[in-house]
Design goal:
mainly beta, 22-stranded antiparallel beta barrel, about 1000 residues, disordered N terminus, globular, five-stranded mixed β-sheet, about 10% helix, single chain
C-alpha cells in the first residue's frame, strides 16, 4: 500500500511537469528554390515518424501545428528537388528552407503501382524513370520514339520509317515465342489500349491473306495517340519482381505514365512553335550500268532501253525518297489554380510530311486535367483527353506482286526512264508496276479518333498522428475508332493487268476499354521509426473490340466506295474480354535503413481456358541502406550512399483471346453455305505464360553530387510457353495452340549518372546506360521448328533446345544434316550516352545510341540482286560454287549459291546513331519582361534534331527493321521498308 501511495504521489508531481515540457508548438516559414530564389508552392512537408503533414501555399509559405511535441524533424519534398530535413523545436519560428535541384534524381519519388509510390532511396527494384524535360528535349511523333536510349534494359526499335509508327518496345530480352511482346501502359493509374490493328494493305500487295496470323502491314501501336508534351514523368517497371502487382499482363514490363497537372498560383501559359523538315537518313545506292552490263542483265530489250536514255543515271531513290517533308508543331498549355482547385489544359497540332510524296502524319489533341479538394478528407482528380491522328503511308515492304515501292525500284534499272510526261505515266517494261504512278495515285490512309476519361478519388477515412487509412478508387474509359481506307485505282499498271482492275479496302476498328480499381491503403508508424504500409485492391477490366474489313475488286473508274466494285469480301473479328484481379501488399520500413516488401496478385480472365481459376503471382523484395550504418563512416566521403537490393517476383503473359477456341471456317457444303472447323485446334486448358525472376543489384552515390551508379543482374525462368504445334492429318487439324516449353533469360543493366562539372554559371549533366541480355530454350514439348522469315533457304529463326530463340539459320547444314547457326537477332549489348551542358542562357544536349550485334536477314539485298540493281552487283568476290572457289561478280555470286548458302544475306546489324541533338537559348528574364511590358515571362529559342546520322556497315536502309511488326521471334527481316528519316526543327517557346 505504501508503494502504491508513493507511486501516485510521484506521478502527481511529474505529470504536470511532462505537460509543461511537451507542449503544443507551431512552426511556420517559407520554402524556396536555392538556385532561383523563387517560392515553391505545393511542397509537401511531413513530420518524420508520424502521418502529420501539410503543403506550402501559393507563395511557398507554410504553418504546421505539432500537438504534444517540443521538438521534431520536418521533411520537405518537392518534385525535382532534393529532400531536405530540418530539426525544429518550440523556439523555432519563421524558417526559410532552400531546396536544391536534384540533378541526379537521388530523392525522387517513384510510382510503383496502382496506389503506391516509393522513395528511390528505399526502392528494392531497378525502376527506370524519365522526366518531361528529358523526354521532350527533341520533338517526336510518339512517346516510344522519345524513349530511345533513356533507360537501361529497354530496347526501342522501329519496324519501319513510315509516318506514325510502328515501334517495338522490348524489356529485358526475349520472354515469349508466340505471345504478346509489348509492355502494359498505365496512364494516370488506368490501363490503356495499345493494340496494333491491321490496315488491309496486305490485300493489295498480296504479302499475305486477309486475317493472316502473320500480317505484314506495319500497323501503328495505339499508344502513339498520346501527346508526349502532356507527360510529366514515366516510370518503367522492367522486371517481374517490380511488375508483379499487374499479374498476368506484366511479363513484358509496365510503363507508368503520369501526365502534367496544375500547381497553385498564378495561371501560367506556355506556347511552343516548331517548324522543320525531314530528309532520308541513309541511301542504299543503285547499280551503274554500261551498255554491256545492261544487255547481259536484261537482254536485247535492256540494251534498247539503255540506248533510249543514252545510259543516263536516273537516281530513283532521290525521286521517290528525296522529299524534304515539312514539319510543324504548335503546342499550348495553361495551368494554375488555388489551393483547393488546380487545372492543366493543353492543345496540340502537329503536321509532318514524309520523305515520300503524298505520305505524312497529322495529329490534333487536347487535354484537361483537374484536381479538386472537396475537404480535408476527400479530393478528386479528373483526366480527359481527345486525339485525332491521320497518316498516309504509301505501300512499302514485302509483296508478291512487285507493287511496293522497294520491290518496284529493285527492278528499275537506273537507265530506265519511267517518269511521267505531260501527265501520262509510262508502263514499266521490266516490272508489273510503275512506282511513281503508284505513289501518286494509290491511297493508304488511316484516321483515328480517341477519347480517354479517367478519375481518381481519394478519401482519407482515418488520419491520426501514427496511422492513416485511405480509400483510393480509379475509373476510366478509353475508346478509339480507327478507319483505314485503301484505294488502288484501276488505271494503275498492275491493276490493269489483273482480272478485276481496281481495289478498295475499308477497315474499321472500334475498341472500348473500361476500368474500375478499388484500393485501400493503410499506413502505421511507430515512435521507434518503424513504418508499415498495407495496400489491398480489386480491379475490374473489360475490353470490347470490333474489327471489320471490307475488301473489293473490280472498282469502277473514278469511284472509291466499296459499293462501286464488282466483288466484295468481308472479314470480321470481335472481342469481348473480361479480366478480374486482386492484390495485397505489405511494405515495412525499418529505421529508414531496411525496406521490405511482400505481395501477391491474383488474376482470372475470359482468355484463360478455365475462366473461374485464379492464377496467383507473388513478389518479395528488400533493400538495405548500408551507408546509414556506423561502419560506413570511414568511406562516406567517397560513397555517401550505398544500397544493396534483392527481389523475386512472378508475372504472366495472357494467351490470345482466340487460343482456347477452335475456329470455324465458311465452306460450300452440297451447294449450300456451311461451316467446318478451321485448321488450328483450340486448347481448352490454355493458361498464361509464367515468368519467375530473381533480381540482384546495388545503387551508389559517389563523391556527394558527382555521380550515381546502378547495377542490376536478373535471371528469368519462363515456363508454359505458348507454342503452335503440328498435328497428324488423321486428327482433322494441322496445328494446335498450347502451352509447352521453357526458356531462361538473364542479363545485366548498368546506369551511370554524372555531374562532371558544376559551378554557379556552368552545369554539365551526363548519363550512360548499358544493357546486355541472353536467352536460351531449355525445354520443348514439340520437335524443333522454324519461326519467322519466309523459307529456310531465305533465312529464318530456329527454336531448338539449348539454342537462343533468336538464332538465325539458312540452307547451311553440317555433315549430319543439322542446321548451322548463321547469326543471332539479339544484340551483344546496347549502350547510350546522353549529355546536357548549360551555361548562362545556353543549353546543349545530345544523345548517342550504340547497338552492337543483332543480325539481320537482309532480303532487300536479295530483291535488288534479283532485279539486277544492287549497288555492289559488279564488284568481284570469291564464292564457293560446286565445291570450288570461283571469282564472280557479287550479285551473280550471291544468286549462284542461293539455295545452298544463305549466309550472304545475313548481315551484322551494329549501328551508332545520333538520336538527339539540341541547342537552346533562353533570353534574360529581365530583358523579356522589359521588352514585352511584363506580358511575357520567358522566350526560348532552339535548334533540334532527331536521328541526324548513323554509322553502320549494314547495306540496307536501316538495321532497325521488322517486316512482321511487333513479334518476339522474326523481327530482323528486311524486305525494303519505308526508309528512315532525319528530322530537323527550329523552336520558339514563350511564357505568358
Amino acid at each position: 500500500m505504501k508503494l502504491f501511495t508513493r507511486t501516485v504521489l510521484i506521478l502527481t508531481i511529474l505529470l504536470p511537469s511532462a505537460f509543461l515540457f511537451a507542449q503544443d508548438m507551431t512552426v511556420s516559414g517559407v520554402v524556396k528554390s536555392k538556385e532561383t530564389g523563387e517560392p515553391l508552392p505545393g511542397t509537401n512537408i511531413v513530420v518524420v515518424g508520424t502521418n502529420t503533414g501539410t503543403a506550402t501555399s501559393l507563395n511557398g509559405e507554410f504553418e504546421i501545428s505539432l500537438s504534444g511535441m517540443d521538438k521534431a524533424t520536418l521533411r520537405f519534398i518537392f518534385v525535382g528537388y532534393k529532400t531536405y530535413e530540418l530539426q525544429v523545436s518550440s523556439s523555432t519560428s519563421n524558417v526559410v528552407v532552400e531546396l536544391e535541384e536534384d540533378y541526379l534524381r537521388t530523392s525522387e519519388i517513384v510510382v510503383t503501382g496502382l496506389a503506391t509510390s516509393v522513395s528511390r532511396r528505399n526502392l528494392a527494384n531497378d525502376v527506370g524513370t524519365v522526366t518531361a524535360e528529358d523526354l521532350n528535349r527533341v520533338s517526336s511523333q510518339t512517346i516510344e520514339r522519345a524513349l530511345n536510349g533513356k533507360i537501361a534494359g529497354i530496347t526501342v526499335t522501329q519496324n519501319t520509317g513510315a509516318p506514325g509508327g510502328g515501334i517495338d518496345v522490348n524489356m529485358r530480352g526475349t520472354s515469349t515465342i508466340e505471345g504478346s511482346t509489348q509492355p502494359l501502359y498505365v496512364v494516370d493509374g488506368v490501363i490503356v489500349n495499345n493494340n496494333a490493328n491491321q490496315s488491309g494493305i496486305d490485300v493489295v500487295s498480296a504479302a499475305t491473306g486477309a486475317g493472316s496470323a502473320n500480317p505484314q502491314g506495319q500497323p501503328t501501336n495505339r499508344i502513339a495517340d498520346l501527346n508526349p508534351n502532356d507527360i510529366e514523368s514515366i516510370e518503367v517497371l522492367k522486371g517481374a519482381s517490380a511488375a508483379a502487382m499487374y499479374g498476368s499482363k506484366a511479363t513484358n514490363g509496365v510503363v507508368i505514365i503520369t501526365t502534367k497537372r496544375g500547381l497553385p498560383g498564378q495561371t501560367r501559359i506556355n506556347v511552343s512553335q516548331q517548324v522543320g523538315f525531314n530528309t532520308i537518313l541513309n541511301k542504299i545506292g543503285a547499280r551503274r550500268f554500261t551498255a554491256k552490263t545492261a544487255e547481259e542483265q536484261y537482254g536485247p530489250q535492256g540494251l534498247e532501253e539503255y540506248n533510249k536514255t543514252g545510259g543516263a543515271f536516273i537516281d530513283y531513290e532521290d525521286i521517290l525518297y528525296g522529299e524534304e517533308g515539312f514539319l510543324t508543331e504548335t503546342s499550348v498549355n495553361a495551368s494554375g489554380g488555388s489551393n483547393q482547385t488546380q487545372f492543366y489544359l493543353s492543345g496540340l497540332q502537329r503536321s509532318e510530311e514524309g520523305i515520300i510524296k503524298h505520305t505524312g502524319y497529322r495529329k490534333k489533341g487536347a487535354r484537361l486535367n483537374i484536381d479538386h479538394k472537396f475537404s480535408e478528407s476527400v479530393n478528386i482528380s479528373l483526366n480527359t483527353s481527345y486525339t485525332r491522328s491521320e497518316s498516309d503511308r504509301g505501300i512499302t515492304g514485302n509483296d508478291n506482286t512487285n507493287t511496293t515501292f522497294g520491290f518496284s525500284l529493285a527492278f528499275t534499272p537506273s537507265f530506265t526512264d519511267i517518269r511521267p510526261k505531260n501527265g501520262r505515266y509510262p508502263d514499266h517494261w521490266n516490272n508489273p508496276s510503275n512506282p511513281i504512278h503508284t505513289r501518286d495515285k494509290l491511297i493508304n490512309n488511316e484516321v483515328v479518333n480517341r477519347t480517354s476519361i479517367s478519375t481518381r478519388l481519394t478519401w482519407h477515412l482515418l488520419k491520426e498522428e501514427h496511422q492513416s487509412l485511405d480509400f483510393i478508387t480509379y475509373g476510366g474509359i478509353d475508346y478509339y475508332a480507327q478507319e483505314n481506307r485503301i484505294i488502288s485505282p484501276p488505271e494503275l499498271q498492275f491493276e490493269r493487268n489483273s482480272d478485276n482492275p481496281g481495289q478498295s479496302v475499308l477497315t474499321e476498328t472500334n475498341n472500348l476499354n473500361t476500368n474500375i480499381y478499388l484500393n485501400l491503403l493503410h499506413s502505421y508508424s511507430l515512435e521507434s521509426n518503424i513504418a508499415f504500409r498495407t495496400t489491398a485492391g480489386f480491379q475490374v477490366e473489360d475490353v470490347k473490340s470490333n474489327y471489320v474489313s471490307n475488301m473489293t475488286t473490280g472498282l469502277t473508274v473514278t469511284q472509291q466506295n466499296i459499293d462501286q466494285a464488282a466483288t466484295l469480301d468481308a472479314l470480321q473479328e470481335r472481342l469481348d474480354q473480361k479480366d478480374r484481379g486482386f492484390f495485397l501488399q505489405e511494405e515495412v520500413d525499418l529505421y529508414e535503413q531496411i525496406y521490405l516488401t511482400a505481395g501477391i496478385r491474383g488474376d482470372r480472365s475470359s482468355t484463360f481456358g478455365d475462366t473461374e481459376k485464379w492464377f496467383l503471382y507473388p513478389k518479395i523484395s528488400g533493400s538495405v541502406l548500408l551507408s546509414s550504418y556506423d561502419f560506413w563512416n570511414s568511406i562516406s566521403g567517397t560513397i555517401p550512399e550505398f544500397k544493396l537490393r534483392a527481389a523475386y517476383g512472378e508475372t504472366g503473359n495472357r494467351p490470345p483471346a482466340s487460343a482456347k477456341f477452335t475456329a470455324l471456317a465458311t465452306s460450300n457444303i452440297a451447294g449450300q453455305g456451311g461451316l467446318v472447323p478451321a485448321g488450328t485446334l483450340g486448347s481448352p486448358d490454355i493458361k498464361p505464360e509464367r515468368t519467375k525472376e530473381i533480381e540482384l543489384g546495388f545503387n551508389a552515390t559517389l563523391l556527394k553530387d558527382f555521380a550515381t551508379l546502378s547495377f542490376t543482374y536478373y535471371n528469368q525462368k519462363i515456363s508454359d510457353l505458348f507454342l503452335i504445334s503440328d498435328l497428324p492429318p488423321s486428327s482433322g487439324f494441322t496445328q494446335k495452340f498450347d502451352n509447352g516449353g521453357e526458356m531462361t533469360t538473364d542479363g545485366i543493366e548498368i546506369s551511370l549518372g554524372l555531374i562532371p562539372y558544376k559551378t554557379s554559371e556552368f552545369l554539365w549533366r551526363s548519363n550512360i546506360n548499358f544493357s546486355k541480355t541472353e536467352s536460351e530454350i531449355t525445354k520443348l514439348t514439340v520437335d524443333p521448328f522454324n519461326k519467322g522469315g519466309f523459307a529456310t533457304f531465305l533465312g529464318t529463326y530456329r527454336i531448338e533446345k539449348g539454342w537462343s530463340p533468336t538464332t538465325i539459320i539458312g540452307s547451311e547444314t553440317d555433315a549430319n544434316g543439322n542446321h548451322i547457326p548463321l547469326g543471332d537477332g539479339t544484340p551483344d549489348f546496347l549502350m547510350s550516352f546522353g549529355n546536357v551542358l548549360e551555361y548562362g542562357g545556353f543549353e546543349l544536349g545530345f544523345l548517342v545510341e550504340w547497338k552492337q550485334g543483332g543480325d539481320i536477314i537482309n532480303l532487300g539485298k536479295l530483291i535488288t540482286d534479283l532485279g539486277g540493281t544492287t549497288e555492289d552487283y559488279d564488284e568481284l568476290a570469291v564464292f564457293r560454287v560446286g565445291g570450288k572457289d570461283t571469282t564472280m561478280r557479287k550479285g551473280d555470286g550471291r544468286l549462284a549459291v542461293l539455295g545452298s548458302q544463305t549466309a550472304p544475306y545475313i548481315e551484322d546489324g551494329t549501328y551508332i546513331k545520333l538520336r538527339e541533338l539540341s541547342l537552346f537559348y533562353s533570353l534574360p528574364d529581365n530583358l523579356v519582361r522589359e521588352w514585352s511590358g511584363n506580358q511575357l515571362s520567358y522566350i526560348k529559342l532552339g535548334l533540334t534534331g532527331r536521328n541526324l546520322f548513323m554509322i553502320t556497315d549494314y547495306s540496307g536502309y536501316d538495321p532497325e527493321v521488322s517486316q512482321f511488326g511487333n513479334v518476339a521471334i522474326g523481327r530482323g527481316v528486311d524486305t525494303i521498308p519505308y526508309p528512315s528519316s532525319s528530322s530537323y526543327y527550329f523552336n520558339v517557346s514563350v511564357g505568358l
